[in-house]
Amino acid sequence: MSASYRRTRIKICGLTRAEDAAAAVAAGADAIGLVFYAPSPRAVDIAMAQAVVAAVPAFVTVTALFVNPDAAEVQNVLDSVRIDLLQFHGDEEHDFCSQFNRPYIKALRIRQASDVVEACLRFPGALAILLDSYKPGVPGGTGETFDWALVPDQQTKPIILAGGLTPENVGLAIRQVAPFAVDVSGGVEAAKGVKDHGKMTAFVNEVYCVDQQSF
Ligand SMILES: O=C(O)c1ccccc1NCC(=O)[C@H](O)[C@H](O)COP(=O)(O)O
Questions:
Q1: What pTM was computed for the model?
Q2: Where does the record place the N-(5'phosphoribosyl) anthranilate isomerase (PRAI) domain (predicted)?
């Protein structure tokens, strides 16, 4: 009889360089994220995104992140770059998110437990709900954790835990929340938009290690 084993999926977000994407894949990331939000220090344009994606093989999910975009902006990215999944990080509603004939996840900046329950209902088409930290005026990528106790034990959609995760705290986060996936950006950076390859490897190894102990 084989032992059951549940693996927490890993997304590394905010990639701007092909060499970082290759290192993220080599470390074991299941997904990478491209930030199409001009004010972000991790923003990519179409040419940069194409270069990053060229380093990503099959079976690794390329996610395009937007904050309150125009539909035309999203469509332009979809027409130009290999994108597997959309991530909406602003005030977009389900009708907007679901118009692109592409699966999407919805990010929620969590303030109270009921936010999670409500988001699962408000975004029936979302593949998952990404929970991030709330910081007034900052749509995401804060590098700050939130109170993980706010995540209810039972949810109706897969949960992606984000916000201030690092190689040092991701093990505790998985033990406490048992999310479907974890999402990291600032915690594995050498500088804004530049990933630290050693930190990415340490992060992935910590997730694997805790999964083996916990599930
Ligand atoms: O990364 C950004 O600059 C950013 C800007 C606007 C909206 C979202 C943004 N990033 C989101 C992410 O990278 C992740 O999904 C998540 O928030 C984790 O970020 P971090 O706390 O840095 O690990």
A1: 0.95
A2: 10-205
